[in-house]
From TrEMBL:
<protein>
    <recommendedName>
        <fullName>G-protein coupled receptors family 1 profile domain-containing protein</fullName>
    </recommendedName>
</protein>
<dbReference type="GO" id="GO:0016020">
    <property type="term" value="C:membrane"/>
</dbReference>
<keyword id="KW-0472">Membrane</keyword>
<feature type="domain" description="G-protein coupled receptors family 1 profile">
    <location>
        <begin position="1"/>
        <end position="146"/>
    </location>
</feature>
<keyword id="KW-1133">Transmembrane helix</keyword>
<feature type="transmembrane region" description="Helical">
    <location>
        <begin position="17"/>
        <end position="35"/>
    </location>
</feature>
<feature type="transmembrane region" description="Helical">
    <location>
        <begin position="127"/>
        <end position="149"/>
    </location>
</feature>
<feature type="transmembrane region" description="Helical">
    <location>
        <begin position="41"/>
        <end position="62"/>
    </location>
</feature>
<keyword id="KW-0812">Transmembrane</keyword>
<feature type="transmembrane region" description="Helical">
    <location>
        <begin position="83"/>
        <end position="107"/>
    </location>
</feature>
<dbReference type="InterPro" id="IPR017452">
    <property type="entry name" value="GPCR_Rhodpsn_7TM"/>
</dbReference>
Amino acid sequence: MSSSSVSDGILNFAKQYSIYTGCITFSFGVIAVQYSTYFLYPIFGGLLPIVIASAFSILAYHNVRHIVRRQLPIVRRKLDKQITAMVLMRVIVFVCLLLPFIIYRIYAINFPISQSMPMAYAIGRLLQTILLSINNINYMINFYIFIIFSSRFRRQVKLVLVKKCWQRWKYWCCPINNRVEPDNNIEPRNSQIESVENM
């Protein structure tokens, strides 16, 4: 099979079965609906990331349970517990923010709303936009989760923001002139003596 026949096959498939995205609407083919409903969103979008994240969080929790039994310094055990708590909370938040969008996408693919019904279509688009925004919070919420659950992370953030970034910003914006400059208004010595005598 040559590469041109493969690309021709892909183009023919694209002509027959198109994909519904957030920006462009096409008619759906049966194969694309089945692929999206039973494989793309449930497996790649939902189940696989959730299973991988959950598996690693369970492994981290299991590891911390074994660390408690070993003879390690108390500080190390405390830090490991904090990291495990952060990982577990991250996975819980990840699942809570991901599932609504995946469920809605599967529903929207199987029960599309026609543009001939503008109010229902607008509500569907609004709901999709809100759920997509909630899903995108996954990429920025780590910082806030770590700030909430880790005192060491809070100390490090404070050190970086206050001690380093603030000092650099202060130096760039408000330079302090600590140089000694000569006084250019030098009066003759005799005039200084006369002014002292007049007092």
